[in-house]
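pasting for ref
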Amino acid sequence: MPQLTETQTEDQQLLDKLRPSRIILPVLIGLGVVGFMFWRSYKPGDLAPLADAKPEWLLVMLAVLVARDAGYVYRIRYLTQKVLSWRAALDVIMLWEFSSCVLPSAVGGTAVAPVLLHKEGIPLGKSVAYIMATAMLDNLYYVLTVPLVVLVGGDALYPHEALQGGLVATLRVGFILSYVFVTVYALLMMYAIFINPQAVKRLLVRLFSVRGIRRFRSKAYKMGNEMVLASAELRGNGLAYWLRASLSTAFVWTARYLVIGCLIAAFINVTWPEFWLIFGRNLTYKVILLIAITPGGAGIAEGAFPTFFGKFIGTPTMTNFMVLLYRVVTYYLYLVLGAVFLPRWVARIFGKRKVEQVMQS
């Protein structure tokens, strides 16, 4: 009986995180910020480039979006060793994206994803292991890509044209610190999964036993246990498994970072060096989103966009239009898709009686 109660509590916590009413706050924040930006700088003549839109680039952007989501579906299905059907994998990815949109960026969909997999019939230990594998691969992509874009873009990765020297220096320090943190975290995860998880667990517990951060020791202990479980589940997988997972990770993140460049190229003439510089600036832009405390970075993502990409677009009015369009295809779209996929997933997992309760919450 206690087990049933624990399961019911877990179900309720999951459905609470995914409740449709969570859409309201980020939409109000995001559209409010964009609306203010338009009100402050709107000039009708500045939208003239819309008349010269290039449909082929819009099609490329749509293809990139579809390919990105298809890549996510492929990756989660093959990471779970095909335990998930294609339909279940699609449901998981859509709800994962939805949860990333309605929860603070620091939490994201990673907190929800293991429970989604568990509800699809995968044991919780394995579910945690698979999500840790995706996190490790995502971080490794960032670790390997940053040196390449720094080599190509250099100091142009920072928006000197929009920020004063002190702010640029702050952004540079934040970028470096975030890179160091992600690198250390990725290497720790690799060491834990493939070499010695118990040593990493002991290290985490000792680090968080220091006065001042001792209150996080229980979370560090939990993370250490999860790494031990992940190692037991994943260490035996062969080279082909990790090669497929790595390539699909590189594919989906490259597609993710290409969206803004494709969107700008659809309305503004950009050179290929500018296009790849836009790709590189996505990685510095990500630093702002990592520290966003609002659901899905709402308001912060919109407000920071002109600083990083405004120079490639031109007028403030056109830049604000790009902000709106970018958030429509990469954020509001997934709020809508989440609202569509959620009731059918709840009906499949919990039964039709639960759907009405969730949709009214």
